[in-house]
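Entry:
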Amino acid sequence: MTSTRGRNKKEPPFEPGLVPPPGALLEWRDSQHYDRWQDRPCALCDKPTPMRSHALEPVRKACAENWIAANPAEARLGRFASDTQPRSTQRAIHA
């Protein structure tokens, strides 16, 4: 059994991908972004949300996208990022 007690709090529990440019949408497809047990107040607007960032910060996806657009310089630090995109296992179809 592993313990999270000694883990650095700034280290995300799962790997984030790229920060989208301002105005673009976040790609949050990993199930770890969704807490099916408990809604918590969004860190940006205080409305209840089951959504979580890569650092498990409760945040509505729309709020995170708006925050990136309003804070482009700070957004590059990676507070909110898209999921890493796995390579497609399908072969390209050539005509």
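The two ends are 51 Å apart (CA to CA).
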